[in-house]
C-alpha cells in the first residue's frame, strides 16, 4: 500500500512528499524545506512514523523544489535521483538563490539519473517514470497505475498547469506531455501536485482550461 504525506514548505507554498510503504521504507520527493522549523517538521514526522528514508527524488529542479536537497542528503545519507536534462537547472540555482531570499541555500549534486520508462522502486512500491518536459526540460513524474497514484511535480495542477516562461520551459511541449502521455492513464488516477491540492486525471481531462480534451 502506498502512503503519502504532504508538507507545504517555503514562500512558494511548494508540496514536499514523503512516500512509503508498509515496510516503512521511504523516499522524500522535492524537499522544499529551507527554514529550520520546516526541516524539523519533516524529520519529526519521519521519526514518529519510524520510517527508513532510502532516497531523495526531484521531479524537477526549480529552486522551490530543491531547497532542502542538501539537508536531506546530509541528514539521512541518501542519494539524489533526477533526470539528466534538469542538471543545468539544478546547477543554476546558486546563481539566483540569494536574490529570491535564500542566501543560505546549499547546493547538491545528483547521484543517479532516471529516464522515461524506468521502473523505480520505493520500498516494494513500483513507479513508472514518465518524462514530461515543458515546465522544465528534465521534468519527470511517477505513476503507479495499480493503486491509481501519480506524483507529478509542476506538470498538472487542479485547474491549471505548470508555468512555461522559465528557462527551459515551453508551452506546446507541456501541453503535449499532458495530453499525449499523462492523459492516457485512467480517469481515477489521483494526482499529487507540486503546489496546491490533489486532483484526478478525469477531472482535469474534462475541466482544465489549459489542457482539457473532453
Throw out a few tags for this protein.
214 residues, alpha/beta, Metallo-beta-lactamase, Chain A, six-stranded mixed beta sheet, globular
User: So what's the oligomer here?
Assistant: single chain
Number of domains: 1
What's the CATH H-level superfamily name?
Ribonuclease Z/Hydroxyacylglutathione hydrolase-like
Helix content: 25-40%
Give the strand content. Answer: 25-35%
Q: Tell me, rounded to a whole number, the average pLDDT.
A: 98
CATH class: Alpha Beta
Class per helix and strand makeup: alpha/beta
Order of SSEs, N→C? EEEHEHHEHEEEEEEEHEEH
| Molecular shape | globular
Question: Biggest sheet: strands side by side, in what order?
Answer: 1-2-3-4-5-6
Instruction: Write down the CATH topology.
Output: Metallo-beta-lactamase, Chain A
CATH-defined architecture: 4-Layer Sandwich
The CA-CA distance between the termini, in Å, is 31 Å
Number of helices: 6
Number of strands: 14
Amino acid at each position: 500500500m502506498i502512503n503519502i504525506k504532504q508538507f507545504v514548505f517555503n514562500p512558494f507554498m511548494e508540496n514536499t512528499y514523503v512516500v512509503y510503504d508498509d515496510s516503512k521504507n521511504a523516499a522524500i520527493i522535492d524537499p522544499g524545506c529551507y527554514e529550520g522549523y520546516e526541516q524539523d517538521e519533516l524529520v519529526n514526522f519521519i521519526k514518529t512514523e519510524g520510517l527508513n528514508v532510502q532516497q531523495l527524488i526531484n521531479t524537477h529542479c526549480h529552486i522551490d523544489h530543491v531547497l532542502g536537497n542538501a539537508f536531506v542528503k546530509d541528514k539521512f545519507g541518501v542519494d539524489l535521483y533526477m533526470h539528466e536534462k534538469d542538471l543545468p537547472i539544478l546547477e543554476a540555482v546558486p546563481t539566483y538563490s540569494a536574490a529570491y531570499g535564500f542566501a543560505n541555500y546549499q547546493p547538491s549534486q545528483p547521484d543517479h539519473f532516471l529516464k522515461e520508462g524506468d521502473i523505480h522502486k520505493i520500498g516494494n512500491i513500483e513507479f513508472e517514470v514518465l518524462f514530461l518536459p515543458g515546465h522544465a526540460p528534465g521534468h519527470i513524474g511517477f505513476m503507479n497505475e495499480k493503486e491509481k497514484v501519480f506524483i507529478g511535480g509542476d506538470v498538472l495542477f487542479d485547474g491549471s498547469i505548470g508555468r512555461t516562461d522559465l528557462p527551459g520551459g515551453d508551452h506546446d511541449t507541456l501541453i503535449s506531455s499532458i495530453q499525449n502521455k499523462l492523459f492516457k492513464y485512467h480517469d481515477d488516477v489521483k494526482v499529487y501536485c507540486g503546489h496546491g491540492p490533489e486532483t484526478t486525471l478525469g477531472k482535469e481531462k474534462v475541466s482544465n482550461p489549459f489542457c482539457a480534451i473532453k
